[in-house]
Amino acid sequence: MIRVKRGASARALVEATALLILAGAAQLATAQMTTGQSSTGGTGASSELGTAVQAQQQLAAPGPAIDRATSTSQSGIDPTFHGSMVEGKATSDVVMLSLGDAIQRGLRNNLGLILQSSNQRQAGGERLEQLQALLPTVTGGASITVQQIDLAAYGLKFPGINPIIGPFQVEDVRAYLTQSLVNLTAFQSYMASKHNFQAAKLNAEDARDLVVLTVGNAYLLCVADKASIKAVQAELDSSKLSFDQATYAHQAGTSPRLDVLRAQVDYQSEQQSLISVTNELAKDKLALARAIGLPLDQKFEVIDEDPFRALDTPDPETAFQQALKQRKDLAAAAEQTKAATASKKAAFDDQLPTLKVSGNFGDEGETYGHSHGTYMAEGELSAPILQIAKTHGEEEVAGAQLDQAKAKLSDEIQQVNADVRDSILDIQTAAKLVESTQSNADLAREALSEAQERFKAGVDTSLSVSQALATDRQAEDQYISALYQHNVAKLSLARALGVASTQYKDYLGGK
């Protein structure tokens, strides 16, 4: 499953380090006051300021980017499905883009689907080429021949006869026919091309599921980014409130300067996080636009949200049997196996006799007004006598290709089985994570509010507020990530079952 996190672990480590430094400084200042070192109060304040500045420098680097680990469902997708042909031109309007609109755009413009459709057309043309070898071939032609012959050049000399004959002309209009009566090699080659065409057609249909999975994932990623921005903005407001409280308390003489510096560090850290997640949303929107054919300079907003909707997961074995019937890529692999079988038969039949008839009929004469009909009919039976190496080599090549096709089909069946079971496990796990992380987020939000109230009342330091803020941030990150994982897992299950292009709304909506 693709993980959507805002680098919570790395950021938490940095902030924890800063908090430890600040806490150490606070303990040092307290120890200095309790040991009666009042004369060094100015030096203590300077030390506190230096510690806070050091902590701020550690957090001065740009905020961490979203960490996206490659998911099982996305790793096998052709990179062409992340591209598209641009549809239309950018306008000054802001496009309100729903998930359904994005998917429909992807089904029209996605490069992967366009290339698969082109492969289908190419396979169809190759099938017709192979079919022609079994059909009658009729050609026509017309010719005018003007000729003069020197008999002496051929050693023909007759006394009293001029050796120069002509010039004379012959005009000919004729139709030619060729028909194979028995040609098993051509027949099996046609059958192979027919199965290849059917496989290309099924692959083009399967590409629609891949488009839905790719576009859906890109859209849900943008939705997750929007949720992250909203969460960081709330955390920024909370840290600003704590910063203001610490400032007022310090000005009133009830709080040390260290509380102000600590709150300022938290506030600036949230500002950096907001910059980071805003940038990630902009980049993810570009990736979505690339997948659906939207001009990159076109402004748009994703308007659908991804609230939690539970999905009753099917029995894995039942779902696998359903996928075997519905997955178009499995059907395409089976057709390719049949094509390889026909190619192997064609290699063997290449050593068998062939029978064909040919003939022509036309009108021939000095001129078209002085001509007569002529024709020719011929039957030909041919058989290879000595081509052992060629025949054996063709059979070996075709046999190897058939073994490869069978192995790929067997592996794809097991991969589909794994995809179905992985998706079901991911849905079940993500659903539990959503429930637990939502509870954690609620508790962390309540703890942050309590810490702020205690600090405002003067019964606690800003350290508790800073720690509660970090906990709240991590809890929000985990909830957003779990929610995203759950929705992508449902979309992946629809793909694993072969129904993503037709039933994605049912799976994302829950049932």
Explain this structure:
There is one protein chain. Helix content is 65%, strand content 13%. It is built from twelve helices and six strands. Helix 1 packs antiparallel against helix 2 and helix 8 crosses helix 10.
Question: Can you summarize this structure?
Answer:
This protein has 511 residues and is of the alpha+beta class. Helix content is 65%, strand content 13%.
Key phrases:
511 residues; disordered N terminus; 12 helices; single chain; Outer membrane efflux proteins (OEP); two-stranded parallel ribbon; alpha+beta; 65% helix
Structural class, please? alpha+beta
Indicate the percent of residues in helices: 55-70%
Tell the overall outline: elongated
Q: If you average the pLDDT, what whole number results?
A: 84
Strand order of the largest sheet: 2-3-5-6
String of helices and strands:
HHHEHHEEHHEHHEEHHH
How would you summarize the topology of this molecule?
Elements lengths: L7 H27 L6 H18 L13 H4 L19 E3 L1 H11 L1 H22 L4 E14 L13 E19 L1 H68 L5 H36 L7 E3 L13 H11 L1 H22 L4 E14 L2 E13 L5 H69 L5 H36 L2 H10 L2
Parallel strand pairs: 1-4
Antiparallel strand pairs: 2-3, 3-5, 5-6
Helix pairs in contact: 1-2, 1-7, 1-11, 2-7, 4-6, 5-6, 6-7, 6-9, 6-11, 6-12, 7-11, 8-10, 9-10, 10-11, 11-12
